[in-house]
Amino acid sequence: MPSAERKPEIVELIWPGHRCEKVTLEATGKSGGAGEIYSIDGKPGFVAKIYHAATAQAHLARYRHKIEWMVDNKPALPPVPADYRDIVQLAWPEALILRQSRFIGFAMQKIAFDRTLELDYLLNRRQAAQEGFDADYGKLVTVSFNLASIIHCLHQRRIAIVDLKPMNVKVYKAELYVSILDCDGFHIDTDEFSADAPQVTPEYLAPEFQDKAVAYPESQDRFALAAIIFRLLNYGIHPFTGVASGHHNYPQELAGRIKQGLYPYRKIAHKGLRKVPASVHEAFPDSLRDLFDRAFASSGYSRPSAREWAGALETYASKHSGQMSMCDQGHLRFSGRPCPTCMRDALIHGAEVRRRSFLARVQTAPVRTLKYLKKTLRQTHSSPFQAALAQAQQFNLVQLAPPAPISTRNAIALEILWIIGLAVAYWWTK
Amino acid sequence: MSQATATALWVLPLLAAWLWRPRQVVSPCGWMLLIAFGALGAWALWFGLYAPGGEPVSFEFWKPTVLYWTLAAITVMAPVLGFGYPAKIILGAYFAFSNREWRWINRGVAVVFTISGGANLLVASGASYKDWVGFKFACMMNLLIIVLFRLNFVWLPILADVFIHLYRRTSAAYRYLSRLF
Fold this sequence. Notes:
The complex is a heterodimer.
Chain A: E1 9-15, E2 19-31, E3 35-40, E4 46-51, H1 57-72, E5 93-99, E6 102-109, E7 116-118, H2 119-122, H3 125-130, H4 137-156, E8 159-160, E9 169-172, E10 178-180, E11 187-189, E12 194-195, H5 217-233, E13 243-244, H6 254-260, E14 273-274, H7 286-296, H8 306-317, E15 324-326, E16 332-334, H9 340-378, H10 384-394, H11 408-429
Antiparallel strand pairs in A: 1-2, 1-5, 2-3, 3-4, 4-6, 5-6, 7-9, 8-11, 9-10, 11-12, 13-14, 15-16
Chain B: H1 3-19, H2 28-50, H3 59-81, H4 86-90, H5 99-126, H6 129-139, H7 141-180
Helix pairs in contact in B: 2-3, 3-5, 5-6
């Protein structure tokens, strides 16, 4: 039976300070790997995440312990202007949900899905435009800054996301604030409480944790944050997507390339690796490129923190800093750098021109073949020797008259003699 | 193979060559080459078909040298006698070079033939029989180069001419037949 058709059920909400409230849940039909999302009757600003019925009791007990701590310890987030009070930056648990005194899930603030889009969509400009988001470098830098700021706040509280990826991040289309989902999967390591985060995504997993447990969750977040920012600014190109040139064991999977540190976009070119032709990373300012190099091409210890990222991006996100300027075509770019949008347009346009030219050649091939055949049959081809002579004229060489033509019959007669001569030479020598 | 068959094998090509003989003036150096090849061919025919084993045994080692040095002598002598440049005949009449350039090409060809003939003698006297045979056939690569050269620049254009000729005749025949019906 579809969840949306399920009967409403009455549950108990336990708010911070152990305040109880009975509410009715109604299925929304949305569900994820761990649980299902319900709306809460009479509380339009909240939704409930109810863990799947098949979840083991031991897991539920661990979830309850974690959610109880989270409800009482909501981290302080970057301040938002008064007009944007309804913006939810974290889908953080706000209340426990009990059914007949048994823990079944938690309530969290509702993210307005009509005002937001997944960060994944921003990696493709066309998809973003279809979702009503006209991406430019000013907006992308601002989104990156906001994401880095939230992660910095979490790291200050010794909370790490670990499974940080574009699908787990929502972006407010008009306000450019970001919202992080699946908070109940975060890694927490405070003095009074700790909980691990077993979920990872190999494409955003730091090289030192590939095929291993994540020993330093904050370092993992730093890597994933850098990868997301790189993709945001570079038209969705993953920092470990490249072209092998002479590298014998270039892995097919991104995870394998990350593990081997095959990052082709660093300032000092990687031997045996080439960038993807459509990449515009050369239009990034040196400060950002240095941070990317430290994030991807150095060891985990020197990887830039979320705070460093926020600090570097803040100057570009601020309209008054003058670090972003308009190019001749009216695109926002990093001041003093080539315009990435124009670079990308030129790359795409160049490819399009080549594609059209190729198609035109294919389409005209039959006609050109016919013309060539006609020229052959009418003997109106221009002689390659004439072409060579014309070439020689350019270099002021002495022009010579071509040899007088001989008839086909005479040519055949001469060649018969030639063949006999060659036969004699062979017979004589063998 | 009977003697009649063997005779037919060389008479028929010669007959074809005579019937299809060039209807143009042959240059004196062309005649020199023809005479040389005729002599060498006659020798090879006589001792190959009619008097096998009659050839001096040691002459086998000299044969490539005789061929190369004969050609070298012709290429050297012909310009001296004012008979033209044999290299012009060997490379075909498809290149427009000045006489000065032909003279140098002719000298180059003469040097190649002279060195080839000398090298043959050197290998025949110093190396084993097997190695000499290998060297001799390696030198025949010259012939292959000439064949490829003429195939590309002479025989294929002739084939194209023949094809065009036939095509024109076919279209004329088609027009004639279409008028009939």
